[in-house]
Amino acid sequence: MTATHTSAHAGKDPGTDRAAARPAPRRPAARGRALRTTGFHVSAGLLSALWLLPIALVLVTSTRTFDDIAAHGVGSWPRSFTMDGFRQAWVDGGLQQALTNSMLVTVTTVLLSLGLASMAAFALSRYDLPFRRVLLLLMLGGNLLPPQILLIPVSKLSEVLGIYDRLYALVGVQVGFGVGFYVFVLHGFMRAIPGEIQQAAVIDGASPWQIYWRIILPLARPALAALSALSFTWIFNDLLWAITVLRTDTQMPITASLIGLQGQYVSMWNIIAAGSVIAAAPTVAVFLAFQRHFVAGLNLGAVK
Amino acid sequence: MALIGSARRSRATRVPPVVLAFVLVPLLAEAFWVFWPAMQGFYLSLTSWDGLAAPTFVGLGNFSEMLHDAVFRTAAINTVLWLLLFGGLSAVLGLGAALLLQQERRGIGFYRAALFLPVVFSLVATALVWQAMYQPEGLINNVLSAVGLDGWRHAWLADQDTAFYAVIVPALWRQVGYVMVLYLAGLKGIDPVLYEAAKVDGASRLQQFRHITLPQLRSVNAVVLSVIVIDSLRSFDVVWALTRGGPYHSSELLSTYMYSTAFQSLRLGYGSALAVVIFVLAFGVIASYLVRAFREAD
Q1: Residues A25, A29, A32, CA angle at the centre, nearest 5°?
Q2: Under an 8 A CB cutoff, do B123 and A239 touch?
Q3: Which residues of chain A does B131 touch, with a Cβ-Cβ cutoff of 8 Å?
Q4: Do A48 and B111 touch (CB under 8 A)?
Q5: pLDDT reading at B9 higher than 50
Q6: CA distance B161 to chain A (A)
Q7: Interchain pair B123, A207: CB under 8 A
């Protein structure tokens, strides 16, 4: 990165690079391009293989029998095939209940927080509210706070309210904590919608609710799709808030249950791997279904 | 522009009450679950509290206790190391992956998806996958044996010297794809004309990278840096699922130490003080993030 560093490289590089960039005689250039394409696919392929290896391993492990793993170790070639690990994780390990809890919390939270956030973003971006910039950044700031500062008071607050160890408590804190970020992103998106569209609606006698529901919300659909995909994975994958406001095993979402599974079935890797597959399946499905929106969502939030 | 400006001004005369409610309801939800608890958190850091009896005010007692707390020191050093290693490596590897996979060509979607897939996994599932790899008879040790490095075989997570680094690897595996996406978007935003001009001037690949790519990525770098610092200080799940900060606190982070102090040792005052330390470490990033957002908000 330093000047000496670059010049040292620059002194060495130009020869090779210029040869590649300059229009050289036709044949060697074509061969060079073919070589580079092969080189690219080899390196990118190896990198992808390395990245996918742990996932392949967990899929394989989840279908092995316990005896196989006990006899040959978790890192050996599989010598058996069974779906028993899934049955045990699902039924005996309590993942069925945990997945239900997770889905309940996640879907409720995504709907509630995006509903609330889109209203606030609509109001802040389409009307000249006093202090709207301050409000917007206050809300974003709340989301950027490290959650650790909130853990103890939030757990006590939910005890006082009598919702400790209930799924509502988890929904409440997830909505409260997440809403600021969604407002910020949606505000940026809605602000870009031309004012004329809204003015025309006002002239036609539309109420603010109608403008929000019939005009702005449909126009903000791409941003909403991106944020839904993103927030689904965030909330579904959360562990910290869950173990802060929940206590009973039957209330726990799937992340916390997986840790329980790990304690309950020590070294029964087929069950633990099956549990991990079950826990990862919903977010992978969302990712595959909304891949484009999902990736767009990451950028929506970040490039600010 | 002028038209929108005047439209705004005329709208400003009266904001319908329902629009006020649109802002106030979400704001109250956040105030209730975030701002109010945050203020309590700061207050609790000045108390000694077991969660049952009333908290007793101890001033800065908790913070002076930290000065003599060896575990706190380990956790603080580890947190800084985590920030440098996890943060630095995920930025470098993410940029490297983005540079490798930036050009649209056949098969690129597959490669990108492969690197990106772990991003959607929960850190808990990620941790368990890697725990299987780290087992004494796990894949990593078997591969080491297969390539003749028998002496390197290790109980990776049970050894004080390796546990911390063994925990970073899964966190990195999951983060690199995310950083890659941010950089890919940044690279796409660079005007190709700049590279054409540089090529005409005879700039080498490295010079192009140094003088065009890096400066053009400045705003993305700032985002990546903020994301990394905030993620590092929040990191909890992967450590909790793999080692709970052990063995002998060797993989302890401030976040895991805060959690176990508060909810397992039930020292809620001291735990709050640890949370304040995390907040103070994060504050600079939060502030600069907000300053940037403030500029962009209008």
Answers
A1: 150
A2: yes
A3: 262
A4: yes
A5: no
A6: 23
A7: no
Of the partner residues A76, A184, A294, the one whose CB lies closest to the CB of residue B293: A184
Greatest distance between any 2 Cα atoms in chain A:
80
Q: Does A19 touch chain B (CB under 8 A)?
A: no
CB B94 within 8 A of CB B180: yes
Q: Give percent of chain A above pLDDT 70.
A: 89
The pLDDT of residue A296: 80
Asked if the Cβ–Cβ distance from B111 to A122 is below 8 Å, we say: no
pLDDT at A265: 86
- Evaluate whether A257 touches A93 at the Cβ level (below 8 Å): yes
- Specify the 3-state DSSP secondary structure of A232: helix
Q: Establish if B2 touches chain A: CB-CB under 8 angstroms.
A: no
**Range from A68-82, A162-176, B106-120, B195-209 carrying the lowest mean pLDDT:** A68-82
Say if the Cβ atoms of B23 and A135 lie within 8 Å: yes
The pair of three-digit structure tokens given for residue A303, joined into one six-digit string: 């490039």
pLDDT confidence of residue B287: 86
Q: Mean per-residue pLDDT for B240-244?
A: 90
Cβ contacts of A294 within 8 Å, gap of 6 or more: A226, A229, A230, A233, A286, A287, B120
For residue B179, pLDDT over 60 is answered with yes
Query: Whole-model pTM?
Result: 0.86
- Taking an 8 Å cut-off on Cβ atoms, the answer to whether B114 and A117 are in contact is no
State the average pLDDT for chain A. 85
- The answer, for A186 touching chain B at a CB cutoff of 8 Å, is no
Cβ pairs bridging A and B (under 8 Å)? 338
Q: Which residue has the tokens 């826990």?
A: A279
pLDDT at position A18 is 43
For A262-281, what is the mean pLDDT?
90
Contacts 24+ apart (CB under 8 A), A99-104: A99/A254, A99/A278, A99/A279, A99/A282, A101/A167, A101/A251, A101/A252, A101/A253, A101/A254, A102/A236, A102/A253, A102/A254, A102/A255, A102/A282, A103/A282, A104/A167
Query: Judging by beta carbons within 10 Å of its beta carbon (0-12, 13-18, 19+), is residue B79 exposed, middle or buried?
Result: buried
Residue A15 pLDDT exceeds 60:
no
Confirm or reject contact between B183 and chain A (CB < 8 A). no
Task: For residues B75 and B69, give the distance between their C-alpha atoms in angstroms, rounded to a whole number.
Answer: 10
> In this predicted complex, what is the ipTM?
0.86
